[in-house]
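An instance follows:
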Amino acid sequence: MKSVGALIPIRLDSTRLPHKALLDIEGIPAVQRLITQIISCDLISREQIVICTTERSEDDALVPVAAALGVRVFRGNTNDLIDRFYRAALQNQFDVVLQVDGDDICAAPYYMAKCLESVLQTDAEVASCCEGLPLGAASKAFRFECLEAIYKSYVPGTNDTGFGYYLTKSGMFNLTAVPLLNSQHLMPELRLTLDYPEDLELFRAIFQHLRGQADRAVQLEEICALVVSQPELKRMNANLDQGYWDRTREIMARHPLKLRVGNKTVVLNIE
C-alpha cells in the first residue's frame, strides 16, 4: 500500500498581501478553506497534509494554526522549495505526493483526485491538469522518486517561483495531463489565486454567494456557474494577470532553474 500525502508551500511574508494564508474568508481562514478542498478529493486524510513553511520567526504563526486544524508542519529552507519538499516528503515517508499551492484556496478536488489516480494506477510518474482551467484551480501529483531524482540533479538556489517546472519541463519523467471534466471548466480568464487584495475580495464574494461552510468544499462547476451568472465577479481581479506573469518571469530570469547533466550545468527551458 503506497503512502500518499499532500504538500502545501506557505510563507507569511507576502509584500502584496501579508499573512494571506491566515486571512478571513467569510469567517474561516484561507488555509482552512484550502485544507477542506484537499480532504474533499477523498484520497488524502487530514493527517496526511503537510504545510511546508520556513524556519523563520515570521512563519511561527502557522504552527498553532496547523495543530488546531489537525495537519502537519514541516519547516525548512526559505527559498529552496525543492529542498523543503524533498525533506518533508522523506520525513513523512510519502510514496506519492499531491502538491497544491498555498494561494489556491479553491483548487478543484476532482482534479486532485484524478492527478493522484493517474500516478497511483497508471505508468504516469507526474500528473498535472490540462491547460485552460482557471488560474488556481489546478494541482499536480508525482512519485517520490521524481522528487528524489530532481534533488540529486538540480543546482540548489532560489526556486520557490517556478519549482514545478522541474517536474513538468525537465523531460526527466513520464508526464500525463488530466483531461477536462467538462467544457464549463474551460475558463482561463478566471483568476482563483490569492496574491492581491482584489483576489481576497473575489474569494470573499465567492464564498458569500456559495455559503461555503468549513467542512464543505466548493466545486469548480459551482464557481464557474456563479461567475457566468454574475460576470462582474470575474472582473474584480481581471486586470492582475499581466502583472502577475510579468513578475513571475522577472523572478525566474533572476533565478533560473538549473540542472546538472553529466559534467555540465544546464538551464531549464520553460517555454
Notes: The chain has a mean pLDDT of 94. The two ends are 37 Å apart (CA to CA).
